[in-house]
Amino acid sequence: MSEQRVLRFAPLVLCLSLGIYAATANWGMIDLKVYWSLAPNVLTDELYSITMPFTADFPLPFTYPPFAALVFLPLSALPWIAAKVVWQVLSLVCLWWLVRTALKLLADKAEQPYDGTWRRRALLWTAIALWFEPVRKTLDFGQINLVLIAGTFAAMVATRQAVAGLGVGVAAGMKLTPAISGLYFLVTRRWKAALWSVAGFAITVALGFLVSAGDSWRYWFELLGAADRVGPVGSVINQSLRGALSRSLGYDVEMSWPWLLAAAVSVALTWFALRAAVKAGDTLAAVIIVQLFGLLVSPISWSHHWLWVIPLVLWLVHGRRNLVLAGVWVVAVASDVITILINLQPSIWEIPRPWPLAALGWVYPALALLTLALTPKLLDPIPKAERVAT
């Protein structure tokens, strides 16, 4: 069956996918409840003093900067049921936007108009990506990831320097992980965007101090860097290098020599991949490479942080890069292997575990390292004449 015949049914497939999801979803949305219930405490300087009781594992604290609490205040004003519905709808729209932004870059790279075919591809891939583990966990937990990543992605590829920089800076002010996006501005020599991102981030910090100086001081000078405060570093849901190494060695490696060695390998692979992407003029590849690097070296990269796999798969498929690697990624994120490993691990707090569980717990970081290693071979450089013309 040709792609065009399949794409004819893309709107129907998306509707069916959304319907099945709505009927089977976990509407507990525990992380959203943390945002919704604890954010107002920023107005009384108690944002990091009060936790939300959660008997399954541990009391959940508010872990983001004070500026994030300010952003969540309008949501906190809604009844809980309304807040859940609004957040789910917003997250699903952002999922489509994430897909759409990646496909638009691919169409531009191929010098094709973003026409009906590309729009239907966006609908079809949104329906498929809905069943990726990072997406499902983000929606089930009511996490901020889809909203944050869609906004960060749009900002990174914005043509106006101020918009790009401010967007990334504000995203980093909400949750620190988008700050790695500044590396993209540096390697592409978008110096003004890099400066604007610093300014945007500084504005968010200043607003936090203006509203709650006590909470801001505590966050930036006491709580920042306490990775274990947001959850168990060694749990399999942490798919960073630190998490994978800790499970393999049986203790939290922190920033000791095993992590430093793995980080050095990541830096080298990222450098070669980024150099190839810049030479090829491939914006989408460069964005993905930077974000994979950030996921690898961050102390905590929960499996639901790995939403950047979606544009990666689209790049591999529609950029005609490597269908085998794309298929492996799809199997990894659609097989729910992380959830299976979560159920099999001794406990979220116990780092040592049987070696098969430790080995399988490398699934995302191992694939990310492989992807970075293969990327230079997958990229076609811009012809010399074209580089001279630009």
Automatic annotation (TrEMBL):
Its main location: membrane. It is found in: Cell membrane. It is a multi-pass membrane protein. It holds the Pfam family GT87. Keywords: Cell membrane, Glycosyltransferase, Membrane, Transferase, Transmembrane, Transmembrane helix. One of its GO terms (molecular function) is glycosyltransferase activity. InterPro entries: GT87. The chain crosses the membrane at residues 12-30, 77-99, 141-158, 164-187, 194-214, 257-277, 284-303, 323-343, 355-374. Belongs to the glycosyltransferase 87 family. This is Mannosyltransferase. It comes from Lentzea sokolovensis.
